[in-house]
Amino acid sequence: MELHLIRHPKPDVASGVCYGQLDLGLAESATAVAARLRPILPERFELHTSPLQRARLLAEALGEARTDPRLMEISFGEWEGRRFDDIGQAIDDWASDPLGFRAPGGESAREMSTRVLDWLAGLRANPSSQTVVVVAHGGPLRVIAGHLLGLPPDRWLGLDFACGQATRIDVATWGTTLKWFNRHA
Fold this sequence. Notes:
It contains 6 helices and 6 strands; from the N terminus they run E-H-E-H-E-H-H-H-E-H-E-E. By secondary structure, it is of the alpha/beta class.
């Protein structure tokens, strides 16, 4: 399977604001980002996306997508929309346990990865005859790539997916190959 992982365009949010499942608009045109990506994507592909508009709008500019809530970013619960500076000491608690920590009313990175890996297992159980393109968020893309590349979960944070760029991973029965990372035409 040829898999292209695309992070959504830059969201319309002030620097230093916590957002995960906060449904933000875009700071750049989804159509313009799609035009930059189109030359590096195959002509035909199966398209999957998160329902959050920052991903969905780009997916719609690329084609007809299957929307799946399991591809949404981590939920930061009560932290959504707050400035990190206002969250205080809890940021240190999160940093000390990035996989297990859960913001009040939110989910942990481990919980988010469970739902994303459930989506990936379904994809692999029913493989497409076409290339698969996924438009989602940094967290879910780290989970997909890290898992497929055999990295331990505590190393997934090192996969820094840039907004509006694509990564290609080829998955074969014998293993996985990272073909390129954070690219656009």
